[in-house]
Amino acid sequence: MLGVVNRILLAATGLVLLAAGGSVLAASWPLGGRHAPLLTDEVRRRYGQADGWWWAVAAGLGLCVLLSLWWLLAQLRRSRLRAVEVDTGDGAFALLRGRALEEAVTADAGAVDGVARCRVALRGRRGSPALRISLELEPHAVPADVLAALAGPVLTRARTSAGLAGLTAQARLKVAPHKAQRVT
């Protein structure tokens, strides 16, 4: 979602800057000469006496500033979960590092037959974490078998070792690039 917002903001900023640069260039340099003012005295008098229109401009600029601040804060926010709360059984909670859980699931999923490469990201909240798993499969791998192994032993081991009642996971599978086999 944030990637789409970044592209839209970048495209809109580029178009606004292109239009502003083009209008400044068209208004001052080719038509009026190099030393001609951008706004003539007549234009300044006509728009200087208008009532109330600058409030719309100020509101638009304020909205742009607020949206820019929201975008900046969204860029600084961390998308990974740093720690998971684990119930110790005595009423207290311990914190399990998110990287440790990610590395354990990566090692287990990487050991499954047919997996060439694996990346795991822990997301969600401390009380209800979720895994995002990206698997790159070898050309001979059967996706249904890899998915069954992932949903079965790998995630069960992660749930029990972290002491979690539920651990949701989203898996993305893709095949590793390979050369075509030719029969001669």
Q: What is this entry, summarized?
A:
With 184 residues, this protein is of the alpha+beta class. The protein has helices at residues 2-28, 41-48, 53-76, 98-110, 143-162, and strands at 83-87, 93-97, 115-124, 129-137, 168-175.
Which secondary structure elements does this structure contain, and how are they paired or packed?
Layout: H1 2-28, H2 41-48, H3 53-76, E1 83-87, E2 93-97, H4 98-110, E3 115-124, E4 129-137, H5 143-162, E5 168-175
Parallel strand pairs: 4-5
Antiparallel strand pairs: 1-2, 3-4
Helix pairs in contact: 4-5
How many β strands by DSSP?
5
Instruction: Please bin the fraction of helical residues.
Output: 40-55%
The total of helices stands at 5
**Rounded average pLDDT:** 83
What general form does the structure show?
elongated
Spell out the helices and strands N to C: HHHEEHEEHE
How far apart are the termini?
A: 48 Å
- Radius of gyration over alpha carbons? 28 Å
